[in-house]
Amino acid sequence: MTVLITLPDGSERKYDDGVTGFDIASDIGPRLAKAAVAVTVDSVMYDLHRPIASDAAVSIVTENTEAGRHVMRHSAAHIMAQAVLELFPGSTFAIGPAIEDGFYYDFSVDRPFTPDDIEAIEAKMLEIVAADQPFERGELEIADAITQFADHPFKVEIIRGVDADEGVDDTTVSTYRNDGFLDLCRGPHLPSTGRLTAFKLLRSAGAYWRGDENNPQLQRIYGTAWESQKALEEYLVRLEEAGKRDHRKLGAELDLFSFPSELGSGLAIWHPKGGILKTVIEDYSRRTHRNGGYDYVVSPHIAKADLWETSGHADFYAENMYPQMELDGSDDKDGQAYVVKPMNCPFHILVYKSSIRSYRELPMRLFELGTVYRYERSGVLHGLLRARGFTQDDAHIFTTEAMLADELNTLLDFVLMVLRDFGFEEFEADLSTRPEKFVGDVDAWGRAEAYLAASLDKAGLDFQIAAGEGAFYGPKIDIHVKDAIGRRWQLSTIQVDFGQPENFKLEYATAENTRERPVMIHRALLGSVERFVGVLVEHHAGAFPMWLSPVQATIIPVADRHQGYAASVGEQLNKAGIRVEVDTADETVGDKIRKAITQKHPAVIVVGDNDVAAGTAGLRLRGDEHEERGVAVDTVITRLVELARPPR
RNA sequence: GCCGGGGUAGCUCAGGGGUAGAGCAACGCACUCGUAAUGCGUAGGGCGCGGGUUCAAAUCCCGCCUCCGGCUCCA
User: Which of A222, A301, A311, A552 places its Cα 20 to 30 Å from the Cα of A137?
Assistant: First the structure.
């Protein structure tokens, strides 16, 4: 018997059946054979040495591709589990997948791993790699597999849950063995442990079995693996570079904000420079919303608990809300319960309800920079990206269902315009659809989901459907941006709400003078201003576009006798709206320039004797290698004003 | 909240039972300087907080606070 193998370039080759991916790769060339880690057979991944039984489209998976690294990392996870089970008798293992840039494996052990343990495990792994043990695929009937893994309850649970999709079929599972170590696994794996060329264990952490905190907590070890030592080192450098962008670190270095422990977890104070940054962003937000047809409203930070009963938050959002406080009580009468607001929507609804509304007023767009407080569990706080108090650029749009589609289209364009203004270029969206528990009627949900999808299409935005991930009151779009080093951040959210108009009995008068219920859209574009600043800091690595930069120009007098002139240039720039600092420190010019550059100031202006005489200045813009000398002060002002102009 | 690892001068970090150190920053003096660190000097610390053990605790033990990395959740 022969099999006909079709290669990715369309060429066909005949082999005896039982030919393996490795044979084919060797046939094509020795370098390919050397780089091969697995093979794709009719889009199913096979081990390199697994026989191919019938005609198939085959492509060789090499180690320097994402698919190849995935195989390698998965094998690395196995080798790690092998090392752990050897070093920690009595321990058992759960799951160990490849993940982006690495892998992990979850274990149940007597005690958590220490950093020394991690080193020992890494050393043991190196031994296993040096031994170059082949990975051998096998298949087991489910009943046999359960016997085989009887000592490993998590494996048994996995085997019991296996369906035809995961197993070989619905009665058989595949296993991999190298040396004495057997693991349940779909594969494929590297041909042998020796092919794991570069890896490093990174950290250990607790992780609940199946991600549920009601389950036992396992010990997870994270690692990374690459096709070469060089690629591994490059990855570690990348991690380091990302660390340098950390907004908490840069926030302190650039003197933007801090989290003093006297305040409490998750609560930031904004220093003057951060205060300017936040204000500039908020001013931009107010301006663009006003121009986008929104009305600005303001609401208080606390409200009667009853309001949150009506809105439903007291039920479904209780765990994120701070405890009630009782006000206005006395010995004779009970007080009134109040709570701090975790959201702005009920207030905007009350604005809507403050008067009888006509269809002529819709869509009504109510916007607020609303500061909310949410209780977040201590372990999840993360600088500005996850805080307990923050300001949302929040708006609620009340519209008829007939106008919903148009409104969503307009809104999505508006969102993308705003995000682009802050320097983001790449976007992705999730469309979250009706969950099991929901309010409103199924048809209305269907229509709303269709409108959302259509608006995404119209905006040309790539999106994924997150089935069943919508809020119980309506479907939503979440928009993610990609930052300068390729990380994704969720910023904007657009949520259709059928529930609140119902809860608050909202109405409008139609042209026929009947009463209809409006549809509500909740939407935040920057999301939280705090979080947005955090993302901006990381995206720009602290070097903000000039219109956002807290200090836009530093003026450096060459010697003390130039201070008067420096101050006058500073005053002129200040009058022109440029945020400027004059550095009068008793230091050398070089030192002061270095400080200005380190602080990421966009423009450095040096003035000396020649400038005083000629009414000029030396100008050095961020990113330029050299300065320009003798630029007329008027020209400096015109140019900087132009560079500092906000996008709108 | 749970599991690890941290908290020593404004910042980055040494020191791990005998009473606290460096670099940078700050301040002072000299230098008056033309595009990424001028030199010299000075000051600065209840070693996160509270207990305990000890002749003696930054150091060992217990509790708490807080930060970092994860789990879960999310703007």
Answer: A222
Here the CATH number for the domain that contains residue A79 is 3.30.980.10
Q: A57 and A170, same structural domain?
A: no
Distance CA A202, CA A585 (A): 44
Number of domains comprising chain A: 4
A490-508: burial string, b at 16+ Cβ within 10 Å, e else:
ebbbbbbbbbbbebbebbb
| 3-state per-residue secondary structure call for A550-600 | CCCEEEEECCHHHHHHHHHHHHHHHHCCCCEEECCCCCCHHHHHHHHHHCC
Q: Hey, what are A468's tokens?
A: 């069943």
Let me know if A200 is a catalytic residue. Answer: no
Write the pLDDT tens digit of every residue in A283-300.
999 999 999 999 999 999
CB A503 within 8 A of CB A312: yes
A188 torsion bin: left (phi>0), alpha (psi -120 to 50), beta (else): beta
Q: Which nucleotide is nearest to A613 (CA to C1')?
A: B34
Residue of A49, A70, A396, A600 with catalytic role: A396
C-beta of residue A35 within 8 angstroms of C-beta of residue A62: yes
Q: Are A499 and A440 in contact (CB under 8 A)?
A: yes
Catalytic residue among A374, A434, A540, A600: A374
Query: Within a domain: residue A36?
Result: yes
Enclosing H/E stretch for A66? helix A66-87
- The amino acid at A83: A
Does the residue A336 lie in any domain? no
Task: Report yes or no on A584 lying in a domain.
Answer: yes
Same domain, A444 and A533: yes
Do A155 and A291 belong to one domain? no
Catalytic residue status for A16:
no
Spot the catalytic one: A393, A394, A430, A583: A394
A167-209, pLDDT tens digit by residue? 666 788 899 998 889 999 988 999 999 999 999 999 889 999 9
Same domain, A430 and A579: no
Q: Are residues A423 and A450 in the same domain?
A: yes
Which residues fall within 8 angstroms of residue A306, CB to CB, at 6 or more apart? A337
Token pair for residue A500? 């609140």
Q: Which residue range forms the structural domain that includes residue A9? A: 2-62
Distance from residue A118 (CA) to nucleotide B20 (C1'), in Å? 33
- Are A35 and A92 in a shared domain? no
Q: Are residues A47 and A72 in the same domain?
A: no
Distance A483 CA to B25 C1' (A): 32
pLDDT in tens, A80-129: 999 999 999 989 999 999 999 999 999 999 888 888 889 899 999 999 99
Neighbours of A472 (CB within 10 A): 15
